[in-house]
Amino acid sequence: MSSVAEYVANLAVVRSQLDEARTDSVVADALPRTLAPYVDRAVSLSDAGDAAIASPDGRVVVASDPSRNGTAVRLGDSDVQQGRGWTGRVETPGGAVVAGHAPVIADDGTLIGFVVAEQPYPSVGDRLSDTATDLLLFLGLGALLGGVGTWVVSRVLKRRSQGLAPREIATLADHREALLHSIREGVVAVDVEGRVTTANDAARETLGLKGDPVGRRVDELGLDQRVVDLLAGTGAEVRDAVAVVGERVVVLNRRAASAGGRGIGSVTTLRDRTELVALQGQLSSNLSITDTLRAQTHEFANQLHTISGLLQLGEYDELGALVGTLTRRRAAITDRVAERVRDPGVAALLVAKWSAAAERGVRLVLHDATALPRLSPGTAADLTTVLGNLVDNAVDACAGGRDPHVEVELHAEDGTLRCAVRDDGPGVPEELREAIFVRGFSTKPEVLGGRGIGLPLVQLICTRAGGSVTVGRSAFGGAQLTVLLPVTAEVPV
Predict the structure, then answer these.
(1) Spelled out in words, what is the top-level CATH class assigned to the domain 2-121?
(2) How far apart are CA 340 and CA 411, in angstroms?
(3) Which CATH class for the 187-272 domain?
(4) CA gap 357, 351 in Å, rounded
(5) 335-344: pLDDT as tens digits
(6) Other residues' Cβ atoms within 10 Å of the Cβ of residue 262
(7) What is the CATH number of domain 276-486?
(8) pTM for this one?
(9) How far, in Å, CA of 121 to CA of 99, rounded?
(10) Do the beta carbons of residue 357 and residue 408 sit within 8 Å?
């Protein structure tokens, strides 16, 4: 339409007639007859539905439709009256039209009229029919590319899914979810960015998580920093690490996860050992009492055999001296322990361990700085389990040596109970000081059996109570294990 309007506007006859019509009324009256052939010719040679020549004030001078002569031209947003060409959409009573406007400029630069060429705006059907060929071509190409892409994707998926069909993959995913959420042990998977990718029901309950943790960073779950480090840490795997979550004692094991030789994060299993710690503590105490009773039975049997022999020989003076010596020795041990250890349970344990150590040829010594008040029942139970295990380990470590002895130091102040057990055995190498707290690890011969439980139990009890246990070298050259526990004494020292 722009080309049609510009063609008519640039005809010499159109320009001259409009220029003359400005000053000659006769020429102006004859314009409809003079210029009509040029307008009709422009319409016949183009796709224009209508064409018209208008005066500068917007009145039709001559149009291909004579009924429009003298009417006002609908210009829409056109700025052709400012002497600029324009194309666009114009709303008319007959509907929307595509219009092209071209100004007619005199030689002196004055606007003497303009030409309008219009065509009815094509309907949706007309536009579709005009583009049907191209549309079919593009649709065909799109279908071809889609088919090829679908084939490539299906080949890749089959190779990645080991030939499983979509239904089989869905079934496998359902089984995986059911398996993860049905096992009682907690499972948490974390990607390389520290975001949780999997957490089953047991893990959420054990960690006390609210809401769905999947997709969130581990450090945003409100967990203790130690638990965060164990779950999202990198590097070496973690075995039987102990952490306290609320009132639970949790044991964590973490292993790195990889796919195609590329690290994708880690998987951590969590086991709630709160009840097990209590049961292990009771069992350890019972075993310790059993061993102590056995040692005392053996000691008393030897003494009774000696007394029986002296009676049969009639050595009554020797018998009296022996009984007096045994009585004084037992009283000295009991008095020394009772003087410094006011808690009856801990004192009874030390007296019993004294006999058990003596049977193994080990001297059990109470440090001069020992001063322990009466403890609450819970703290006393924890301390007897911890102390019993530490003394047993120390006796095992130094038994058979030259003048073996074990030293126990107990005292409580400022709300902290300190328990240190030292021996003169071979000690614990620095590279094994963390490994000895792993369940099942032991430096003792395998033939002894049942090893690797005592120290992990000590660590679990200390962790649950909010304390700690450390390993170092004693002043005697052996090992020193130091336990710190929060405590409130019932009776002052």
Answers:
(1) alpha beta
(2) 9
(3) alpha beta
(4) 10
(5) 778 888 888 8
(6) 7
(7) 3.30.565.10
(8) 0.45
(9) 9
(10) no
